[in-house]
Design a protein that fits this description.
The complex is a heterotetramer, with two copies of chain A (324 residues) and two copies of chain B (371 residues).
Chain A (H helix, E strand, L loop, with lengths): L1 E4 H15 L3 E5 L15 H5 L4 E3 L4 H13 L3 E5 L10 H8 L2 H4 L9 E6 L14 H5 L5 E4 L3 H13 L4 E6 L6 E4 L12 E4 L4 E5 L3 H14 L4 E5 L2 E3 L3 H11 L2 E8 L4 H12 L9 E5 L10 H4 L3 H13 L1
Parallel strand pairs in A: 2-3, 2-4, 4-5, 5-7, 6-7, 10-11, 10-13, 13-14
Antiparallel strand pairs in A: 1-8, 6-12, 9-11
Chain B lengths: L5 H6 L3 E2 L20 H26 L13 H8 L7 E3 L5 H6 L4 H9 L8 H4 L10 H16 L11 E6 L6 H13 L3 E7 L2 E2 L2 E2 L19 E5 L3 H16 L5 E6 L18 H8 L3 H11 L5 H24 L18 H15 L6
Helix pairs in contact in B: 2-3, 2-11, 2-12, 3-9, 5-12, 7-8
Classes of the chains: A alpha/beta (324), B alpha/beta (371).
Bound molecules: thiamine diphosphate (2 copies) and magnesium ion (2 copies).
One thiamine diphosphate (TPP) sits at the interface of chains B and C.
């Protein structure tokens, strides 16, 4: 056991994946010598060479489009999108090609491409550097979408998604990159597509993922001090959702709050609310409540703390849920 | 201004031609080709058969057997010439109109019809033919082709730096405007990837003439990216073969990408849904009819005693047979099972989709014998 | 009063808008001589000239990007995207620029751009020609999203969105283009952002938009024959949603079914279900049920009738709702 | 191959230079410039003040007053030269680094700092300065610029076909790879739009050297699209002024787009978050230091008796004053009100957002005096 930041754990996970399979290639802007602007690919070009850690021209559609071609030739590309807000130029390649080639080819072609996206706000950045675009991808059939929240998941999940034969959008909570945790690289990882109860509780289920897991845990601690027991679930998989785990919890607590940074409107929280209500209608004591970014563009960073869900807003929703 | 006066280049567009519309062999300083009579006849056969597939498909669409068809009429030479330039290990990324290239890659025309009939979304195995599925979103495949070529590079070349195969990406004149196509030029040139960009400039993107996409000849686009561009008579199967062969050889040698512009004409409608009388004059077609890609080969063969009536009849008979295969095969293509739409969304399925499938199966079953 | 197809009504609406305001320009692929592949811009270039009805190069990002520039110069561009599946190359310009410039500029810059998208399936087309991408845009703050369903709305709504100073994504149900209806061009149009009860009823509220309005109405007729009274609402505005109208109805019927062609997962139906449940929790007798395209890519056209919601699937959901 | 041998062009890159690094005037066959002493001194003043703004901003970032800063160090001449070439009715589409152009358009530096401090997302009125907001997504603004230029065209030119103003779009070497930038080249050339594409090739896109974007000089990209491209010494304010003036005049005359590549060097980090020691050698900087854009102007002025110590001191004093304005102004920039984040999402607000705002206001109010 050693202490790793999430960033370092991801870096180690990538390294393991590259060691294990010579077909794994990393591509993106500044992933080479610089090691990426967040240093997630630090040292990999030095050790695996420029053919496997590819500094690409500055064009995201080009990154994903050529990754698809590489995958067709038998490679397993791991693309880094520098920041969440810069994935949109690649949207067409992701939605119309990456997501659909396996279906189009009736299974003949597999595209084991991973697209890593540092996402979310809270780092005082300028525009386009704090977005949470996961709903766009979760709405897209043919893609799988996951988010890690801690060093252990970062280390194992990145290896699991690289090993997966389906295309995966892999979200990394950038504001948690520097959080440290114990990581046992010899442990047996949890299955990729399962949610995890990160704090058991009895009164309200709080669903979170990525950067909001920590926020939810903080809320749970604060609530506990007030005698309210929150069960916090880290969804991990955003598409497909692990509804079995979610329903198991909500059927016990009968109340649920979903937390994410992305805007509420047509977001992941809506899907969770719709499904939970459909599948646990008679159990629920209160509607599923959402604590999310507001339905505005991401604001100037000096007000982002107000825009982003925080401990207090989660507790407020918990109170409202309990008041039903 | 120090650079880029387009008028200079436009004044002398270098169009590589090896067989004139009248069927005369023409010499070119850089390109030559030497075919045996058999090879020559084989090209003729390809051209005739490919056109026949196209004509049958158009007819099948009219009869309601296909939802839509994108005819290659007039582009047979560009496709057969480039298609026959391919070595077995080369890999093709087509658009939706490369029926002639598909033919050269031994893809049964019924696969193509399946797509346009709507019984599948492609269906053949790209790796079995080194021929990718059709790509409908304009330009996307040029990036796939470039990435594929980068894969070939990463597998390593021979001691002389050469690769076992090259990649060819087809696209149209309209596609040249797409960001993706230009990004593929950036990538290919920066990585010196073994890829040939084969642009069939058929003068039209649906109703828009080439002037809406470029004010200089398209082959010159490559100049802006630092690799060679060449314009070839797209109705001349010999020139298309020679130029594509050279470009593919250059790619395999490790000398990087080439843009080939095959200058041709879309003789038919954009697709069977299109009505070209709304936007172009019938008289425009006349001059291009005189440049027909098949007639010139036939004229050459006959004039040089390479083909007699027996040969021509035999090809005709073969075309009739192929047409029957296409017609009957198309009508016999089975509709997919409703539940098959849940197949192959993922390699590793999901409980969510399994549930949707089961619910829908139950729902469908509820109609059995009912209502 | 005269009889118009939806296609012709849109054409007339565009013509009126162009007559009224010389700053209105139309741009897109084949919108000139051809009049667009669906003939919605038929005759407009002939009458308004090539400077106002612009056949553009074949590149959707270019269409939207230059439309933004034209709007900054005071024009009111109406972009045609040829088919739903071809809007994705423009996604970055739509999401990061079109949606955000007004916010970014603190109101200094307005972008009255309309993006017309023929959407939905049911016409036996090949891949990418039958998609329903509205959720992507509804999730994007800064955009407004509407869908018309009939000739009268086509005629008036297209004029209203062109007059709007906000960017609007305007969805046209392509399979209904050739449906005919009476249209009184002298009538006073309904306000743009209001849903409309197209068939009053008492037992279950059915929410639909675009192509599914007709399907919902057919279901309502069939249900009536079985003694079940459906209230059908044409949402018209997809973002913002007219929740007042929706809740007014659901609070009466206490049951709701949402119908759309787009996949269910993280779609409009999820948002409607989440909001209705939150705002009418104690009223609902059943969870909001969704009848949608499945969570697969759009399948080959020979099975699209199974993929798309139809009368029977709506009735099935109504039955399930009533069984709660 | 018939075309596009890149080695030819590369061997003679035509770099327009009018003032050598040593401060000597240089003649050029196509470009000349004739400035009064006052104009010359004004350019010097601009260069010094612009650099000073940049230095202050970098310092403010270090002190925690700004979240990030993108320094223009080394690019002053490219920006001041092109910025001073602008006529009042010309319109500018900058990236995020055009602080020197902003200066030429009378945008108070505090507006720029507001953005990097995070108190707004831009904030100045583009139409008040004919200077658009900064655009951070690489390349997007080139399409906006082209559309804006198409708007100018549609308002109609003079009787001689000329336009009252032109548009200039700034972008970097890295941006040249983006699909949008290449699409803007297609559009501009097809519509012959009055737009100048001004590429500051500062040799780096964050950590990636120019070789990762192009294997030929970037100004040659224009060749592929049929309009002129010219490479100018980006550290030579005279050359940048002359070349941009000519390109803008050409655009206003109705002769269409030009690509100007200002060949320069990013002397600092990409932004204050960047650490260039990870990817480039300190020694690379040395050769470029000798080409400093300010020193050569100073040398020229002094050597030719156009500037004495008084003048230089006065500029220095002015720079100090400006620095104080920037420092104090920055610290005084007020944080936005939380509820202001709901403003200006739409021109015509929505009940949905009003409700969110109200709920959040109530929520915020619940803390007043509480917890
Ligand atoms: C991204 C995208 N936009 C629009 C379309 C619709 N469309 C299909 S073919 C076509 C014209 C293509 O012209 P060109 O590239 O010259 O090829 P051709 O059809 O002439 O072979 C258009 C606009 C599409 N398929 N993809
Ligand atoms: C679409 C997009 N992708 C990635 C980024 C992140 N990014 C910001 S600046 C930059 C490099 C830009 O290089 P260049 O165009 O040469 O401009 P310079 O910074 O050198 O002025 C990158 C990759 C971005 N802003 N937008
Ligand atoms: Mg064409
Ligand atoms: Mg640069």
């Amino acid at each position: 056991m050693a202490t790793y930041t999430l960033a370092k754990a991801l870096n180690e996970g990538l390294r393991r994946a590259m060691e294990r399979d010579p077909k794994v290639v990393i591509m993106g802007e500044d992933v080479g010598k610089l090691g990426g602007v967040f240093r997630i690919t630090d040292g990999l070009q030095k050790d695996f060479g420029e053919d496997r850690v590819i500094d690409t021209p500055l064009a995201e559609s080009g990154i994903v489009g050529t990754a698809i071609g590489l995958a067709m030739r038998g490679f397993r590309p791991v693309c880094e999108i520098q920041f969440d807000g810069f994935v949109y130029p690649a949207f067409d390649q992701i939605v119309s090609q990456l997501a659909k080639v396996h279906y189009r080819s009736a299974g003949a072609v597999r595209l084991p491409v991973v697209i890593r996206i540092p996402f979310g706000g809270g780092i005082g950045a300028v525009e386009h550097h704090s977005e949470s675009p996961e709903a766009y991808f979760a709405h897209t059939a043919g893609l799988k979408v996951v988010a890690c929240s801690n060093a252990t998941d970062g280390y194992f999940m990145i290896q699991q998604v690289i090993a997966s034969d389906d295309p995966v959008i892999f979200f990394e909570p950038k504001r948690r990159y520097w959080e440290k945790a114990e990581l046992d690289t010899t442990a047996t990882p949890d299955p990729l597509w399962q949610a995890r109860v990160v704090r058991p509780g009895t009164d309200v289920t709080v669903l979170a993922y990525g950067p909001m897991v920590k926020t939810a845990l903080e809320a749970a601690s604060a609530a506990a001090a007030d005698g309210v027991s929150l069960e916090v679930i880290d969804l991990r998989a955003l598409s497909p959702l692990d509804m079995a785990a979610v329903l198991e919890s909500v059927n016990r607590t009968r109340r649920c709050v979903v937390v994410h940074e992305a805007p509420a409107n047509v977001g992941l929280g809506a899907e969770l609310a719709a499904r939970i209500t459909e599948q646990a209608f008679y159990t629920l004591e209160a509607p599923v409540l959402r604590v999310t970014g507001f339905d505005t563009p991401y604001p100037a960073s000096r007000v982002e703390e107000d825009y982003l869900p925080d401990l207090d807003r989660v507790l407020d929703a918990v109170d409202r849920s309990l008041a039903f | 201004m120090s650079d880029g006066d387009p008028s200079v280049a436009e004044a002398h567009p270098e169009l590589v031609q090896l067989l004139s519309p009248e069927g005369e062999r023409v010499a070119h300083p850089h390109y030559s080709i030497d075919l045996t009579p058999d090879e020559f006849r084989a090209l003729y056969r390809d051209l005739v058969l490919v056109r026949r597939i196209d004509i049958e498909a158009t007819a099948l669409q009219r009869q309601g057997e296909l939802g839509i068809w994108a005819s290659l009429l007039g582009q047979e030479a560009a496709q057969v010439g480039s298609g026959r330039a391919l070595a077995p290990d080369d890999f093709v990324f087509p658009t939706y109109r490369e029926h002639g290239v598909a033919w050269c890659r031994d893809v049964d025309p019924l696969w193509l019809l399946g797509l346009f009939r709507g019984v599948n979304l492609g269906g053949w195995d790209p790796n079995a033919h080194n021929f990718n599925l059709y790509t409908i979103v304009i330009g996307s495949q040029t990036l796939h082709a470039t990435g594929y070529a980068m894969g070939i590079q990463r597998e390593g070349g021979g001691p002389d730096g050469s690769y076992p195969g090259a990649v060819i990406a087809y696209f149209g004149d309209g596609a040249s405007s797409q960001g993706d196509v230009n990004e593929s030029f950036v990538w290919a040139s920066v990585f010196n990837a073994p890829v040939v960009f084969f642009c069939q400039n058929n003068q039209w993107a649906i109703s828009e003439p080439i002037e809406k996409q470029s004010r200089i000849p398209l082959y010159q686009r490559a100049r802006g990216f630092g690799f060679p561009g060449v314009r070839v008579d797209g109705n001349d199967v010999l020139a298309c073969l020679a130029v594509t062969r050279a470009a593919l050889a250059r790619a395999r040698e490790g000398s990087g990408p080439t843009l080939v512009e095959a200058y041709t004409y879309r003789m038919g409608a954009h697709t069977t849904s299109d009505d070209p009388t709304r936007y172009r004059l019938a008289s425009d077609l006349e001059s291009w009819k005189l440049k027909d890609p098949i007639e010139r080969v036939k004229a050459y063969l006959v004039r040089n005693g390479l083909a007699d009536a027996d040969f021509l009849d035999a090809v005709q008979a073969e075309a009739d047979e192929l047409a029957a295969h296409v017609r009957e095969g198309c009508r016999a293509l089975p509709d997919p099972e409703p539940l098959s739409m849940f197949d192959d969304v993922y390699v590793e399925g999901t409980p969510h989709l399994d549930r949707q499938r089961e619910e829908f199966a139950t729902y469908l079953a509820s109609f059995e014998g009912a209502r």
